[in-house]
Model the fold of this input.
Amino acid sequence: MPIIGIPLRYSKLEDGRPILYLSEKLRRTIQRAGGFILPIVQTGYYDYVNTKYNEFGKLSLKEKEEIDKYLDMVDGVIFPGGFKITPFDKYLLDRCIERNIKTLGICLGMQLMSCVGEDFKVYKNDPNINHYQEDDNILTHDVIISKDSKLYKILGTDKIKVNSFHRYHVKINNNYKVVGMSEDGLIEAIELKDKTFNVGVQWHPEISYDFDDNSKKLIDYFIKICEKNC
Done:
């Protein structure tokens, strides 16, 4: 059973107290696909919910060593959706790349990937382009997949329908190859060149895993290649 590291995300309870959490849908999907989840806990002494990105200090040597201890234990890492990126997330992804750890970025996770080697930048969607659906149980729009991509080899098709829950999008990053575009011109999938598996998608395959074959293909493939000696 492959060990899948997932960094926790940040939110608040109704009474305002900050929490770190793992999406219940993501948990169930990864376990159903055959993965064993290892939550990766933020290492710094910060209120990760209320601290702004430019207010974080540099990671200490101890914090970096703790991140590497997590990565020593995993076969793959999923960067999930959420609303905020921190220097912890960026360093964790950098180390995944350096160590060639199999990595899947989902929504915000893909946006994080788009900033490798650059300042963190995402762009608010044009108000005329609606990529935020209300219903979890539908697929909203088409994505055109490049035939010269890992994603195409996994899915076996160059056009799929996906769900959509993002109000921000990314622009081209020279480190990653764009392999999926929406019909209205937003980047929907990226891949890092020359790595075993480092793929980001703007949609949420874990949400549509139970009723969409392409979502299931992607998650199942990721879990399979994260098995030992694979």
Summary: The helical segments are 24-32, 61-73, 87-98, 108-113, 150-155, 213-225. The mean pLDDT is 91.
